[in-house]
Amino acid sequence: MLTIERALKTDVEAIVAMLADDPLGAQRETPDDLSAYIEAFEVIDADPHQYLAVARRNGRVVGTLQLTVLPGLSRRGATRAQIEAVRVHADERGSGLGSDLLEWAEREARGRGCVMLQLTSDVKRQDAHRFYERLGYEPSHVGFKKRLV
Q1: Domain of 53?
Q2: Is residue 40 part of a domain?
Q3: Which of 14, 68, 74, 145 has its CA 20 to 30 A from that of 118?
Q4: pLDDT band with cut points at 50, 70 and 90 for residue 102
Q5: Domain with 28 in it: what CATH number?
Q6: How many structural domains compose the chain?
Q7: For the residues 12-39, what does the mean pLDDT come to?
Q8: Whole-angstrom Cα distance, residue 146 to residue 149?
Q9: Residue 24 pLDDT class (50, 70, 90 cuts)
Q10: What is the mean pLDDT of residues 8-15?
Q11: Quick check: is 63 in a domain?
Q12: Does any domain span residue 7?
């Protein structure tokens, strides 16, 4: 049985393992030291505009994403939702779990009054881009990032 629910502090280790389990994540994540992740979890968990979700199958964490609600002035004061850090455990890839997670995020965003759901994806993740487009996401903007540290 699959459930999608708010992550608990005890889920951080499993979430970080999924973040690190791909070529890009392996270069930037440090699953052997969870202290920074625990601190970040506590900040996320305390913020009512954040929802760190986990998908559980039979009690085991098999997927995750972070949903952020963004109030704004543009689009006549519209509220948007941003999806970040979508990950599916290697054992579950191809099972439809990614679609389930994003459908959950859409329902959650609508329930919070959001008029738009947006996400970014690294340019190197071509398979992910095709997946998002199949679900109705449009590559309508170019994203920019600047490292500060």
Answers
A1: 2-135
A2: yes
A3: 14
A4: very high
A5: 3.40.630.30
A6: 1
A7: 94
A8: 9
A9: confident
A10: 98
A11: yes
A12: yes
